Amino acid sequence: TILDNYINEYDHSAKLKGLESTIKIPTSITVDSVEFLNSYNIQLTGHIMQRYPKDSESIQGIKFNNSFDSKISKISEKNSNRYNVVTWAFQVKIRERFDYTHYPFNHGNIWLEVSPVTQQQNILMIPDFSYYNSLTDINSANGIDEKLIIPSWNIRGSYFNYHNDSSRMLNKINSYETVDLPA
Hints:
Radius of gyration: 17 Å
Largest sheet: 5 strands, mixed
């Protein structure tokens, strides 16, 4: 309900501007491995599964906003009556801002910021809650492989969050023709 209310604000904004409503892409992420390359750079591998509307090849694609040296490949596509289910494999390097002032008692968050590749349409990726089990347990690590081991780290949980998407540059130029959608 909270997610739906949040998303409805963007649909309302699109309607006020006379634009098409937001295309919502249910997205699930699983992180399979994490490697700390140095004190600020990490490498993640995993999978992303998305449910696109039928006949939507033109809007398919993902990008990691806070990354460099990304490798993303489509590994499967299944068509159902309502959706095209696309699975992507990724290997991505991310520069994180870890705070080491309280070392060795610090705790860190790894932020994985995902956006659609295309900027031509109002596309919003939403968490695909039907993919994850145990969403009622706040300490559950949804989207993290159960066999994932990060030495000297205790995984407390995983979370979904929206924030300003600075990668959507067209939105800043033609703000009256677009909706400022989050990552």
